[in-house]
């Protein structure tokens, strides 16, 4: 099997380091480049040293040079950084895996446009378990389509900058779609003050931030006399990184197009 040559963006970040570790341990993958922003204190350092395994690949901020000899860029950074990396991938014909969350509508449109030229996997959660939960949620919502109030509750570490999480939003979209509703018309984000009674069609979102919580998501279906909760808890970021490497393998056969983890896992 041909080794896939990866560039990792945001290589000194929480996901960047986990991705470096996953790539270095994978016999079918090579770390070809590691990127950071131009003021990062990690520039010039051996990317492998970030995870205790020196590998001779220096952290760089030269995006075009980094992409010259890679098959795929994996990007878990911030929307503004991802869009820069995406433009470079589009220019140089390199496939991209986007795990970053918190994009504006314009940002999502830029990703869709780039995917007409290059293959893109864009998914708010690359863990296989979360993607199984998306399927379970669609089924649960269809069965519990009347008489159940739906709430999405997510918890993350204190460093997370966007809320609700991309995963929570996707869970809301999955449930709304299964019920024939438009999430933009029925979502409510947090509650405070005299809210009035809860409309039956509402989908509520609550975000908790604290400590080092890797990522917990629960969808609650609250009915008369019973509650159903579907929960996923991540104990390590490696589940996301391993999902990203499955996406990298999937993209090797593609020439262009926008995909998510449901495509990668054959769940559509
Ligand atoms: N799809 C999925 O499965 C998952 C998605 N995520 C998402 O991935 C993203 C990153 O999460 P996480 O690793 O925890 O975040 P971190 O803040 O730990 O990492 C982000 C990295 O990107 C760097 N960075 C920030 N701005 C820029 C820029 N303009 N150009 C280049 N690099 C930049 C940061 O550098 P510095 O620290 O110096 O600013 C940092 O090294 C988030 O959007 C998160 O929601 C996270 C886990 C799983
Ligand atoms: O920022 C994180 O940590 C995570 N972000 C993703 C999201 O916003 O859904 C995925 C996971 O929950 C971890």
Automatic annotation (TrEMBL):
Name listed for the protein in its UniProt record: 4-hydroxy-tetrahydrodipicolinate reductase
Span of domain Dihydrodipicolinate reductase N-terminal: 4-126
Catalytic residues, chain numbering: 156, 160
Entries under NCBIfam families matching the protein: dapB
Domain of life per record: Bacteria
Reaction equation(s) it catalyzes: (S)-2,3,4,5-tetrahydrodipicolinate + NADP(+) + H2O = (2S,4S)-4-hydroxy-2,3,4,5-tetrahydrodipicolinate + NADPH + H(+); (S)-2,3,4,5-tetrahydrodipicolinate + NAD(+) + H2O = (2S,4S)-4-hydroxy-2,3,4,5-tetrahydrodipicolinate + NADH + H(+)
Family assignment from sequence similarity: Belongs to the DapB family.
Gene name, Swiss-Prot/TrEMBL: dapB
């Amino acid at each position: 099997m041909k080794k896939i040559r990866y560039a990792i963006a945001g290589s000194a970040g929480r996901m960047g380091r986990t991705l470096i570790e996953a790539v270095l341990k994978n016999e079918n993958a090579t770390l070809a480049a590691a990127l950071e922003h131009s003021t990062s204190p990690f520039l010039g350092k051996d990317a492998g040293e970030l995870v205790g395994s020196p590998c001779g690949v220096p952290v760089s901020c030269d995006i075009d040079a980094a992409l010259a000899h890679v098959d795929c860029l994996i990007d878990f950074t911030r929307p503004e950084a991802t869009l820069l990396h995406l433009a470079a991938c589009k220019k140089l014909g390199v496939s991209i895996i986007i795990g970053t969350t918190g994009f504006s509508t314009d940002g999502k449109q830029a990703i869709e446009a780039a995917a007409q030229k290059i293959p893109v996997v864009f998914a708010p959660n690359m863990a296989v378990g979360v993607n199984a939960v998306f399927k379970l949620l669609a089924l649960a919502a269809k069965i519990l389509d009347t008489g159940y109030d739906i709430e999405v509750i997510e918890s993350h570490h204190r460093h997370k900058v966007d809320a609700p999480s991309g995963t929570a939003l996707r869970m809301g979209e999955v449930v709304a779609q299964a019920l024939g509703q438009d999430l933009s018309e029925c979502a409510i984000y947090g509650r405070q003050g005299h809210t009035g009674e809860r409309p039956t069609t509402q989908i509520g979102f609550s975000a908790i931030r604290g400590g080092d919580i890797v990522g917990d998501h629960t969808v609650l279906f609250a009915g008369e006399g019973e509650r159903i909760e579907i929960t996923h808890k991540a104990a390590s970021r490696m589940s996301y990184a391993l999902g990203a490497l499955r996406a990298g393998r999937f993209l090797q056969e593609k020439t262009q197009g926008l995909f998510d983890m449901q495509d990668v896992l054959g769940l559509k």
